[in-house]
Amino acid sequence: MSSTAVAPSSPATRTVAVSMQGIEKAFDANRVLKGVDFEVLAGEVHTLAGENGAGKSTLMKILQGVYSADAGEISVDGRPVTIDSPIAAREAGVGMVFQEFSLVPTLSVAQNVFLNREPRTSLGLIDEEAMERETEKIFETFQLPIDPRASLDRLSTAYWQLTEIAKAISQDARVLILDEPTASLSKKESEILFALITRLTSQGMGIVYISHRMEEIYRITDRITVMRDGAVALTDYAENIPPEDLVEAIIGRRLENALTYEAHDVDRSGTPRLEVKGLSTDRGLEDISFTVHPGEVIGLAGLMGSGRTEIAHALFGIDKHRSGEILIDGEPVSITTPISAIEAGFALVPEDRREQGLVLSHSVRDNLLLPLLDRFRRGPLIDERRSRRFGSEVLKKFEVKGASPDLEIRLLSGGNQQKVVLGRWVSTDPKILILDEPTAGIDIGTKGEVIALIRELSRTGTSVILISSELTELLAVSDRILVLRKGHLQSTLDRSEIEDEESLQLTIQGV
User: Fold this and answer.
1) Could you say which of 109, 141, 182, 415 is the most buried, measured as most Cβ atoms within 10 Å of its Cβ?
2) How far is 12 from 172, CA to CA, in rounded Å?
């Protein structure tokens, strides 16, 4: 049993909250679920792990009523149920918190908790007091310090997530599915979430936990089920699965040395590839100065709001510069728009690939061509044959599974979408590649591929600026790490000066 999950009884005596037996699902000729068995006990945290495209999301969408299974049975608390819509799932006692919230920012917390289920007065009017009273009861029961009357747009991402969970609780959920719940949370906010999960399981709720973060999986999980290629590859208690065995079960092979730092020589005697002098912006950066040399990987570390993403946006022409100077290969450049940044040699893989990096309604090829249209023009038109061949080459090089150039990109898994974004920007042959949380929400196998790509780019002379909340990643590939706090550069550390993840964490926290 995990260190934080508190169950109301021993595993042997717990009831089964939800059971899925023999679940089959195919999309056209593609069989994505192959007789999957999965269950969650009352009062346990059961992690569902696997690579992007392994079938996790499809299985959970069947449980949520988004898809219908082609075969198989589902029961809740031992009762067979038919879940053919999200409403049916909710009535059966299944709740889910997605990475993309289903909340209305301009409404209060209580209004969001009871959205589309508002209690009414005898006159048929919405009973605001009843909503606030019921929401407050939930928050008191689970010790959540939230004002039901607060406007959601004034609260942090963590409190948005807690509001989503409160909504599920108010609907009498017996099982709660949490999909990458810490993806956009700070360490402190994640602790609030973990404490809530402990209280939920102590009340007998079953939790399905979907995450690619190994540390938190082992911290809060009772059991782990691994899916691979649409089938269950492993189910066991977390304490029985060493991390290296879990990785092997997920990706089907040993992942050797992906997160071990490989020292390499960086020539800092010549002109820097990038020199930033006294950069300040209206978005909170103050007097930032640093250099990046050819083939060097610079990591940006700091708490949420420290200024890491703001540096990326300033260098890529998204945020306006108040003062400062940027030099590429010793020559001053004017960066006022993303187009001018691309022309200067920058490329940016943004933090939110779905909102900032992709046009989801368009094809893979369209998304790959966005910064490269001039390369494939033939008169006023795009050379269809050349662009399709280019798309196929990128998909092959970056091992994007199950994709063709003409496939709508929204149909790809998160990891494969990220590979398309990476492939697009690497294809521009940038002098400086900025990666903002490049492994967020992707599986451990793809993480290893991203880290290998960073190493390959640095060996061929590309300078890389890496922003990551996962310190193990920063330590695996960074030659130097810049620590930011509240928009200021606090320190610059050579990789040889950093003993381990804990010492870097202390530096970030200012201890």
Assistant:
1) 109
2) 25
